[in-house]
Write a sequence for this structure.
């Protein structure tokens, strides 16, 4: 017989499984790929290890280890946010892309973070 009490117990048992499944799904959709593992083609970027078009976030760094650039790709083309950073860590630019082409307002910042 189904009761509210039994439904709550079932939900308590299922909640961790649903949560972990969601985390796994989100992590499998996107990945961070170091820039030195990327091959540049005509208009696309490919993973050097698999030769597949890049889907995920590609980051490059200054020799100091400071983040220089973070770009999101989908099927080898820029898709979404592309950000660059000054050597002091301040945001240098923030641009959006759709299917490899600029989309929307492009913002550029000075080393003090001013637009």
């Amino acid at each position: 017989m189904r009761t509210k009490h039994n439904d709550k117990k079932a939900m308590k048992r299922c909640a961790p499984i649903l949560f972990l499944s969601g985390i796994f799904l989100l992590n499998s959709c996107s990945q961070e790929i170091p820039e030195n593992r990327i091959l540049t083609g005509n208009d696309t970027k490919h993973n050097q290890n698999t030769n597949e078009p890049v889907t995920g976030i590609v980051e490059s760094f200054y020799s100091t280890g400071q983040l220089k650039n973070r770009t999101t790709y989908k099927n080898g083309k820029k898709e979404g946010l592309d950000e660059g950073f000054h050597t002091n860590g301040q945001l240098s630019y923030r641009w959006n892309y759709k299917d490899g082409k600029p989309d929307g307002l492009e913002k550029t910042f000075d080393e003090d973070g001013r637009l």
Observations:
- Strands lie at 32-34, 38-40, 45-47, 56-61, 67-74, 77-85, 91-98, 101-102, 107-108.
- Residues 31-115 form one domain.
- The chain has one helix and nine strands.
- The mean pLDDT is 80.
